[in-house]
Amino acid sequence: MKNKDQNKDFETRSLDTVCINESHLKHQWYHNIKYLIVGLLFGIVFIKAEIISWYRIQEMFRFQSFHMYGVIGSAVMVGIISVFLIKKFNIKTIYGEKIEFHDKKFNKGQIIGGLIFGSGWALTGACPGPIFAQIGTGATVTIVPLFFAIVGTWVYGYFRNKLPH
Description:
This protein has one domain (about 25-160). Helices cover about 65% and strands about 0% of the residues. The chain has 8 helices and no strands. The longest helix is centred in the middle third of the chain and has 23 residues, at about 65-90. It starts with a helix and ends in a 6-residue tail after the last helix.
């Protein structure tokens, strides 16, 4: 019985990218400053491109503007090209670690999760990526969606083994 539980845990964890490519290298705390810098630059780009604008998000969900679809489509294309290049040229991380990609099975949980995520995004105008930039611009009301995003993540983690993967 224990072996069966271990296999289920492995299958569930294999869906989680961080568990596949997680670095085992130990770094000093100041190595994380690069993430702060990239995050700040990303936030500035989000603000200047109006990606964090509640009005732009509402336009997208009402099919009134192409702006957000263009941004999301561009990001998808950059991702597709990046993965293709990483696979073709066997590119490694900056620390020399191999980047692994594993096929994922499609399941109904992805549809259900996507609908819940999209509904929350449409209702609040806050997506987990730009939510910190929204808070940084003074839209402190987005602390509420941030709180519930954290709660939702915790609930998912708590019930993860019982959910359809």
